[in-house]
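Retry 2 of 3 after timeout on previous attempt. Resubmitting structure tokens to design endpoint.
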């Protein structure tokens, strides 16, 4: 089997993206676990991201598997190279799935938030219930789409194209609205919360590179890589918002420290005066 410069370049990019995905997600896992809270994340943002990541892999499999069947029959190495884009999409979904699990595990529990008033506690109970329901729904979608695609690949490839067109449409809508709930949540909270700025800072330029990689792998299938371009632009907007709010928080903290520093002598003078008066 001969290797072209294009094959070597694509394989190298695949390795880089695999390492890059780990570098992106690990700081996010660490921050959620360290804070023991997933506050700052929007439930709908996580739900849409998890579902869209899986459907992207399903969508790619509809195009990749039939075309690569002949190659896979010839050699395992050739099969892996041919299915490289699909494997990376599945890997990306798996990393997002871990983040979703951490989001649910460390979601603020109403029974432990003793400082909240009754109204806020009821709202948190409702939000936590929605988070658990959407988590279940996302896995129902995963199971349904997997079984449907597998059955069509085996028994009815004629309908497969129509199924793929339907997945394309759903994906396009999901990617269009994916970051809207998170941007709204960040503006409402005025803080990044448990969102890792390191992950987001790496992810944003990485998304543009990821889009380029998918475009080179599937140049004729713009419905696969264009949604990722929309995600990259949205990530950039969210990054700017998070940096802005975190910068403001740091400025406010410094101002409070300066105020406390100048307030301390006055407090000591008042204390000395009161002691003198008592004597």
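Retry 2 succeeded. Sequence:
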């Amino acid at each position: 089997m001969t290797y072209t410069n294009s094959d070597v370049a694509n394989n190298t990019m695949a390795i880089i993206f695999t390492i890059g995905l780990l570098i992106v997600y690990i700081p996010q896992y660490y921050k959620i676990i360290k804070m023991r809270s997933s506050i700052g994340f929007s439930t709908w943002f996580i739900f849409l991201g998890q579902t869209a990541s899986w459907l992207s892999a399903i969508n790619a499999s509809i195009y990749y598997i039939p075309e690569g069947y002949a190659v896979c029959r010839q050699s395992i190495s050739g099969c892996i190279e041919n299915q490289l884009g699909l494997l990376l999409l599945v890997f990306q979904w798996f990393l997002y799935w871990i983040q979703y699990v951490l989001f649910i595990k460390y979601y603020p529990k109403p029974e432990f938030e003793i400082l909240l008033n009754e109204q806020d506690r009821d709202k948190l109970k409702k939000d936590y219930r929605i988070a658990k329901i959407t988590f279940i729904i996302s896995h129902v979608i995963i199971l349904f789409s997997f079984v449907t695609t597998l059955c069509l690949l085996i028994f009815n490839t004629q309908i497969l194209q129509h199924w793929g067109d339907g997945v394309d449409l759903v994906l396009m809508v999901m990617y269009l609205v994916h970051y809207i709930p998170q941007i709204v949540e960040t503006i409402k909270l005025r803080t990044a919360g448990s969102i890792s700025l390191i992950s987001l800072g790496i992810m944003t330029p990485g998304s543009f590179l990821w889009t380029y990689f998918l475009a080179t792998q599937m140049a004729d299938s713009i419905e696969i890589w264009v949604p990722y371009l929309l995600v990259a632009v949205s990530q950039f907007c969210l990054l700017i918002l998070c940096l802005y709010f975190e910068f403001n928080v740091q400025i406010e903290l410094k101002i409070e420290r300066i105020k406390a520093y100048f307030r301390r002598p006055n407090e000591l003078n008042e204390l000395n005066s009161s002691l003198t008066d008592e004597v």
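Attempt log closed. The first helix runs from residue 5 to 35.
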